[in-house]
Amino acid sequence: MNNQEREQMLAQAKQWILEAGAHIRESIDQPRQVTTKSDAKDLVTDLDEQTEQFFTEKIRSRYPDHYVFGEEGFGDEIASLAGVLWFVDPIDGTMNFVHQKCNFTISIGIYEDGIGELGLIYNVMEDDLYVGMKTQGAYKNGTRLPALKSGGDLEKSILAMNAFWATPNRLIHHEAMQQLVQKVRGTRSYGSAALEFAYVAEGMVDGYLTMSLMPWDIAAGIILVDEVGGKTTTGDGKPLNMLEKNTVLTSQSAIHQEIIDTYIHFK
Ligand code: 2AM
Ligand code: CA
Question: Which fold, 154-263?
Fold first, then answer.
């Protein structure tokens, strides 16, 4: 994909994401149909589904040879990263959407042959649009985000993470996570992975650690964080698998390895 193609696709994706977001804002106080998916805490609403359908139809009619990998299943069956692939999370942070009516995003990542080209994260209620464009930088509402500071210090860091991982769980040793919580200056939990990635890119938090995310939760955010010089890997420092669920650490580079080496111990 050349720069011109990337620019055109960005303009198109921006238009769709703003339109879908405006529709969600207009409908925010309407009664919602809330159902559960994989477990009682995994929520989905009629608007998650309608929004994914909106994107799927738009992408298919404008770019018939592209693929859609969407959370709610209106896209394609994806078994490979070949070609141009749109990762679509129509509402990231559905629990926030249902309970709080804020702190949720629309997240769109566009990849070609597995390489991240464009990432868009739209904080719907704040009307904040974050864009990452391969080699061209990351932007919030059109203003370029500065490179993340190098030489960060874990003791002076704010880390986004879910408190669940500092309690006994099947995946990681929680005692080490408790030490991490004590080590950092503070922790935060926003409940939308894409928003947490955007906050890492923006320097609002220094890192975000989580243990169970699907490719559509992270596709856009990875590009944003990359473009400001941050790093994203699995919780044990490996490259992410964009077809499967991952453990994820995204952060400024300086604290990345220390968190992995000292605090994340898988069972
Ligand atoms: P969602 O709202 O799109 O489902 C909450 O900590 C974050 O984790 C949100 O970004 C949420 O995305 C994601 N999440 C919640 N349940 C999940 C699941 N079962 N698999 C993958 N991601 C999940
Ligand atoms: Ca979602």
Answer: D-Maltodextrin-Binding Protein; domain 2 (3.40.190)
